[in-house]
Amino acid sequence: MVALAVGAVALAGCADDGSGAESGAHGAKKPPGAPAPKTAVRLIGDGSTAFTGQQPNLPRPERLRPGQKPPQFVVFSWDGAGEDSQKLFSHFRKVAKRNNTTMTYFLSGVYLLPESKRKLYKPPQHLAGASDIGFNDRRGIKDTVEQLRGAWLEGNEIGTHFNGHFCGAGRGVGEWSVKDWKSEIRQAKSFVKAWKTNTGRSGAKPLPFDYDRELIGARTPCLEGRTNFMRAARELGFRYDTSGVNNQLWPKKKRGLWDLSMQLVPVPGRGFETLTMDYNFMVNQSGSTSQGDPDKHEYWGDQMRDGLLKGFRRAYEGNRAPLVIGNHFESWNGGAYMRAIEETIERVCTKRQVRCVSFRQLADWLDAQDPKVLARLSGLGVGEAPKEGWRAFLSARPAPAPKGVPGAEPAKR
């Protein structure tokens, strides 16, 4: 597989919730004694994907009780999300399982399209077969499909990072129309839904999900083209976008989608903040090269880890705003940033009242909440805990969730 591409532009303790409620690392639990669902596999199209029923290992979102401190959500996500010779996709699946974590993998559709079939991709404003991140080979596709299948069954989300990753001026995604984005999304789905046909692996196991239902969110290449993408995404039934830049504040809806933007966190030892992404830390450390001074690799990795931990503590001890972290499967600066992410996962995801989840799970939880409660939370500044304490701040009894909304009371029989 080609090296995974860059995905963002360069930009400059345990607490009690006071409610008496015990909230474990992942909060909502499955109903006790609930049997595993038994659903017949229904192949879709050429059998590249299949409907297999409700996704396993998804907790049911619960509405906050009066006076209950919100859990601290942390979302780890990956742009590109293919398995290559570095084996980082499979590695971080293991890291996630060890630390009770689920994540979002933003798949680049061309990573399921072999080089020999590249002309099937007709990128907006570019010649057929063009791609700034190349394509894949049959072995790379086989390995990537295996990781996607396992990740979904473990409760992780499969989003999209689209296809050709065209950035910058001159027909980059920032210049695409709503129509262009719809074409790109349709093609990203088509490469997932026809990977068997395109690789000749008709007897292989399908991906265990219907990608038309699974795909509810994305991050645009280099965080560009967001306005028109969001218009297209809303019309196509997406639920969130994570292509913006924001401070560590509670999410709000923007153009009908949850705005789960990338965030700014401190850079230890420097007088500014940067995005919670490997690429941005790298640019602030080694500039335009991903192979900087080897003597600084350990320091740079520590600096990213400590910056993420500062951002985490600022939220965990303050406004409890979800922390959004995005990265790539890469080996920049000697693997400094992969180490930083792994150590961050190990230090935060096992803490009490912390939920390391996918964007889908975060969106489900947000949809389950009383809008008045979310409005109160969004009024808190970066790192600002309620002066009167959480019990008093969220003391009012929230309205019941409407029927059909995650977190609503089940229908009585």
From TrEMBL:
Organism: Streptomyces silvensis
Transmembrane segments: none
Gene Ontology terms: biological process: carbohydrate metabolic process
PANTHER family with a match to the protein in the record: CHITIN DEACETYLASE-LIKE 4, PTHR45985
Record-given protein name: Lipoprotein
Region annotated Disordered, chain positions: 17-71
Gene3D superfamilies: Glycoside hydrolase/deacetylase
InterPro entries on file: CE4, Glyco_hydro/deAcase_b/a-brl
